[in-house]
Structures are given as structure tokens and as C-alpha cells.
Amino acid sequence: MTAESFRREIAPCRTFVLKQEADQMLRHGLGTRVTPKNLLVFDQQGPIENELRFDNECARHKALDLIGDMALLGREIAGRIVAYRSGHRLNAALVRELVARFAEVAPARASA
Ligand SMILES: [Zn+2]
Description:
By secondary structure, the protein is mainly alpha-helical. Helices cover 42% and strands 8% of the residues. The protein is built from four helices and three strands. Helix 2 (19-27) links the parallel strand 1 (16-18) and strand 2. Helix 3 runs parallel beside helix 4. The chain is elongated, with a radius of gyration of 17 Å. It starts with a helix and ends in a 10-residue tail after the last helix. Zinc ion binds next to helix 3.
């Protein structure tokens, strides 16, 4: 992935929720300023009041989440990551494990 392919292929991919999850958040007073135009809300027929930017936009958003979470590692990763039903919690667990295993052999980059 290059900076350009990230900008074009991954960065535009929005987060998404199921309608029942959105309804539950609203009942708890969360996301009251968010509309189905801001993020993808899915019902049985697909996105509500919205259109996908890519056929696999949700999978691309998961890649976006993973790339962002791996960036918190502060290290170059030479390898391949395969994620299945991933989320921030799982990604963070991977980052913690990588730090625990490799912090001594691959010190974090100095922050800018
Ligand atoms: Zn996300």
C-alpha cells in the first residue's frame, strides 16, 4: 500500500452499524447528531439513505481500522496480517502482544 492507494482506496471507507445497533445507541443518548448520511447504517435491504462507495466498503473500513491501530505500534511491520471479524479490541490485543514480544528488538520510532 502506498500513501496514494491508501488515500484513494481505504481512507474514504466509512464506519458502519446495523440499524438495531444504531437504534440502541440512540436510546442511550449516543450518536444523536449522527445521521445515516454520516455513516453507513444497514437494514435488511442495505445501507439506509446512503450508497456504498465501494462494493466492499465495510471490509475496507475494517482494513482502515486495522492500519490505524497498527500505526499505534510506532514500528514498521514486515509481515502479513490476516484479520477475521476484527475490531479495535482485537487489534489492540495484537498491538499489545507485538510490543510485549518485540519491544526490545524493534524499539519504537521517535515521535515527530
Ligand atoms: Zn472503524
